[in-house]
Design goal:
This protein is α/β, with parallel strands linked by helices and 346 residues long. 40% of the residues lie in helices and 16% in strands. Strand 2, helix 2 and strand 3 form a beta-alpha-beta unit. Helix 3 runs parallel beside helix 5, helix 7 runs parallel beside helix 9 and helix 7 crosses helix 11. The longest helix is centred in the N-terminal third of the chain and has 21 residues. The radius of gyration is 19 Å and the shape is globular. It starts with a strand and ends in a 7-residue tail after the last helix. It binds uridine-diphosphate-N-acetylglucosamine.
Amino acid sequence: MKILVTGGTGYIGSHTVVELMQNGFDVVIVDALFNSQAKAVDAIEKIVGRRPEFESFDLTCRKKTSDFFDRHTDIQGVIHFAAHKAVGESVKEPLKYYRNNVISLINIIDEMSRHNVQNLVFSSSCTVYGQPDPEFLPIPEHAPIKKAESPYGNTKQIAESIIADTIKAEDKIRGIALRYFNPVGAHESAMIGELPNGVPNNLMPYITQTAYGIRPILKVFGNDYPTPDGTPIRDYIHIMDLAKAHVAAIRRMTDGRMKKNFEIFNIGTGTGYSVLDVINSFEKTSGVKLNYEIAPRREGDTIKVWADPSFSNRELGWKAERNLDDMTRSAWKWEQAYRKGETLFE
Ligand code: UD1
């Protein structure tokens, strides 16, 4: 069975392609390489022993998208990752985000419907929940959606609505939106991992780069939050557990196990960890003393959010298996391999 993976050379995409191929799926990747390297395809081949097909073009181009689907008539499902994802940048350049994230989705759904491709998995985010009210912690899928804090977050909400409305209007397409919590870590081979462009925004790559000496010091954004140690709490999830959720979602669709034509699942572990918990785990698994300081809060940060994954566990037959130490250990292994030039990436 062939799956189109858009954004398949990116962080979540590349790990998911490995997992799909190791579960017997064929994969064609489409990626414009805005924020990733074609070397990911070589790395995937090295891990899996089989090469995914790969085409590089921009999915906001209607013509190129339609030509692509005309040439690949054997696609049976689409996992759509390709999107911009930097929260801060989206505030400064909203149209860049709305154009890329929304138009590519519309083009893809249009072509799916034209070519009778039924199955769509969409990468959504727990950012759609904003700061949940206390009665919704851990947060279930039916918790209220809060007004998005950034254009990036809004594109995820809009995309979910576009998918829901299209599926309501035509019964040919089925969709699953996976709301990811905080994906971290890397494939155990350290051949693929997270490769942020410039200064990282996210915690884990900032930690590993600081430990390696690329950044002088990690700033912990606030320790005066109403949490046990004063730092914010997130549901960090190992990237390979996240990758497995996509295989489970595709199988649910193709095995005819969906209960509605559009389903939404939380993809998290169900356990919340603070920033200091992550740092402590990193120091333990790496043996490196991390240079960090407490800094002012970062604007727009949620205080605490973690998933209620019981619906995913039950319905998808999927459960996150790796713990925080597995996450920090694999992230550090990847950072070192990359910096020492042991990977295929530039
Ligand atoms: C952020 C985005 C979210 C997006 C996700 C994936 C915001 C408000 N949210 O999630 O929409 O889906 O990234 O890209 O930007 N931290 C530090 N120092 C650092 C970096 C982070 O203390 O240098 C702290 C943050 O304050 C936060 C935690 O680490 O408490 C996690 O931050 P981060 O990795 O950026 O993820 P989110 O903010 O949860």
